[in-house]
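User: My collaborator sent over this chain with a note saying "see what the structure looks like." That's all I know about it. Can you take a look?
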Amino acid sequence: MTGASRRALVASVGVVAVALALWGLEVTGRPERPAPLESLADSRPTDSSVRGGGALDEVGDAAGAAPSLAPPPTSSIPSSVPSSISSSGGLAPAGDQPVPQSVPDGAAPPSTTPGSSSPGPGPTGVPATETPTTRVDGADSAGRWIPAPGTAWQWQLSGPLDLSVDVPVFDVDGFDTSAEVVAELHRRGRRVICYVNVGAWEAWRPDAGGFPANTLGQSNGWPGERWLDIRRLDLLEPLLAARFDMCAAKGFDAVEPDNIDGFLNDSGFPLTARDQLVFNRRLAEMAHERGMSIGLKNDVEQVEDLVDWFDFAVNEECARYGECELLVPFVAAGKAVFHVEYDLEPHEFCHVTVPLGFSSMVKDRELTAWRLPC
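Assistant: Without extra context I'll predict from the sequence alone. Here is the result:
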C-alpha cells in the first residue's frame, strides 16, 4: 500500500516466543511494547502483515520445484557475523548456537556463451535471457548504480515527503513523486529508488483500467489490491514497462518492485517457483534496459537464484521471521540489503543485522517519514 492509500495492518499476527532479559533501552516516542523476545524467528503470518506480501500459505505442490532454502555457504558469510544467529536462521542468545559450518553452495548465475544468441539455462532450468554484468566500485559494467552494504536509507511511501532526512538513498513512490522532486534529491546528492507495485493490481492507480480482468486474482489483504497472474507476461509486460518508463523519465536511479513473491501466497493462480523466477528475472532485465538498478523485494526463498540478477535487496522483517541469513549473499556480492523491522526495537535486532552489513531501521507500517535507524 502506498501514498494516502496505505492502511494499517489488516490482520494481526500471533507471536510464539518467550521473554528475554530487557536491555533497558527505551525509544522515545514509540509505544510501550511487551518484553523483547528470546527468539525472533516467528512463524510466517497466515494473513497480510507486511507491505509487499499477501496471505502466505505453505509451499507445497503449487510451488513447483522450489529452489533450495539452505543457508548461504560459510565462505560468503562475513567474519563479523555474530554468534547470536542460530543455525535455523533465527536469533538466539549470544553463544547459544553457532553459524552453520557446512552448507551446499548456491547455484551459479546464468551465463551466455560469447558469440551465441542463445543463452544457456539458468540455475533452475529457467531460460536465461540476460547475463549479469561485473560490478566495479559501486557500479556495474553498464554504469548502473550498485549501493554498497551498510548504505543508510530512507523509505517513505506516505505523508508529506521529508527531503531533510540526511541519508544518501531515498525510496519513494514512483507515481506520487514528481520529476522535480527527484531532481531536487539529486541536487542534494541523494540516489532515488522508484517504488512500483508489479505483482499486485492497485485500484487507485491511473493505469488500473488497463489490466485485463483475467490477470486479476485474489486480494492480497490490502484494500484495493489483487494479485496478478505473473505467468501472463504477454499481457502484463507492456503495462509494467510503461511504469518502468515512467521511473526512468522522472530520473530515478533504481526500481523497487513490490509483491514479487506471489508464488508463496494464495494468489488465485497456481503459480510456481519457476513462474516467479521467470517473472523476476524479466523485471531485472526491464530495469537494466532502461539504465536503472533494481532491488529484490523480499522473496528470500529465491535469493541464491536471483542475487546475480538484482543490484540490492529490500527486506521487511527478516529478523522477526528468522530469515536474515538468507540475504547474506547480497552483502557478500557487495550489494546493499535495505532492511526494516516494524514490531521490534533496535536493541532487539541491530546487534545482528548491522554486523551482517545490512542497512537496518525501524519504520511504522504506513511508511511515513518517521524512522529509527540502527
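A starting point for your reply to your collaborator: Confidence is low (pLDDT under 50) at residues 1-137.
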